[in-house]
Amino acid sequence: MQILINLSVALCAVYLVFVLLVYFGQSRLVYFPEKQLSNTPDVIGLDYATVSIPVGNGETLHGWWMSVQDAKGTVLFFHGNAGNISHRINYLTMFKRLGYNTLLFDYRGYGQSSGTPSESGMYQDALAAWHYLTGTKEIAPKRIVLFGESLGGAVASWLAAREKPGLLVLASTFTSVPELGAEIYPFLPVRWISRFEYNTLKSLQAVSCPVFIAHSPQDEIIPFQHSQRLFQAAPEPKQFLPLEGSHNTGFIFMQPVWKKALGAFMDKNLSNAGI
Questions:
Q1: How sure is the predictor about 26, in pLDDT bands with cuts at 50, 70 and 90?
Q2: How is the chain split among helix, strand and coil, in percent rounded to 5?
Q3: Is residue 271 flagged as an active site residue?
Q4: Residues 6+ apart with CB under 8 A from 28
Q5: Which one-letter DSSP state was computed for residue 136?
Q6: pLDDT of 135 above 90
Q7: What is the pLDDT of residues 51-100, one digit of tens each?
Q8: What is the Cα Rg of the chain in Å?
Q9: Which residue in 106, 172, 215, 219 is the catalytic one?
Q10: Which residues have CB under 8 Å from 183's CB, separation 6+?
Q11: Is 216 a catalytic residue?
């Protein structure tokens, strides 16, 4: 009996140490930034301008601004938790073909942006990018589409709940980090120890603009039901587009359908929004 007690105590101690390591090392489980840019829009023949966006706490964000003639509107793009903007260049091509200006930028700690990633910092970055478009570029809020992929969807939703964009697009986004973490690590008390929220579901409850949501049932990272719950919480008008493929390939496999459905939704609802 004493051996069993000692073994149980040892296992509990090991488990506690593991939980503490996860608690203090959460940032490494959430953020996977790359500082080196793998390429630029030049490689696919796009005209663009490099922009530097100041953030109130002294950080500076690096981004690319792509304008199109007679633009229907402007897309403010929020990428996911890995890589940097150089891995999202094909989105610029898509939005150009759809007739939209695009601001593609890196959060603090990603690419050539300064600083270190954090949840509160990303929200500040989102506001800085928004003010760059509405202030420096003098673009009307109702002509701006907030587009968020994966973790970027949580950031875009946060911004949409506080400003008045023309439209919100969520691609393969989760409801919140604690809920997703509890599903990925069922053996850990994630809801108790999570230092991150990124509560997309809560933000959507305060969003008033049209919402377009896309997700693949085959997504191996973020379960499909997350976007289904987000869609239920989103205000009207809204549209849900099921994709095909994995978390990182769904948009490739569904690109023609994806572009057609997204473009039609954006055109219709920005036209209805006025200036």
A1: confident
A2: 45, 20, 35
A3: no
A4: none
A5: I
A6: yes
A7: 999 998 789 999 999 999 999 999 999 999 989 999 999 899 999 999 99
A8: 20
A9: 219
A10: 223
A11: no
Q: Which residues contact 239 (CB under 8 A, 6 or more apart)?
A: 211, 212, 213, 261, 265
Highest average pLDDT, of 7-16, 59-68, 219-228, comes from 59-68
CA distances from 216 to 29, 182, 184, 252 (A): 23, 20, 18, 11
Rounded Cα gap, residues 265 and 83, in angstroms: 28
**70 has catalytic annotation:** no
What span, in angstroms and rounded, lies between the C-alpha atoms of 169 and 262?
9
Q: What is the pTM of this model?
A: 0.91
Out of 121-130, 165-174, 182-191, pick the least confident.
182-191
Alpha-carbon distance 76 to 268, whole Å?
A: 18
Residue tagged active-site, from 62, 79, 215, 247:
247
Q: Which residue of the set 150, 157, 176, 227 is catalytic?
A: 150
Task: Report the side by side order of strands in the sheet with 73-78.
Answer: 49-54, 60-66, 100-105, 73-78, 144-149, 167-171, 211-215, 238-242
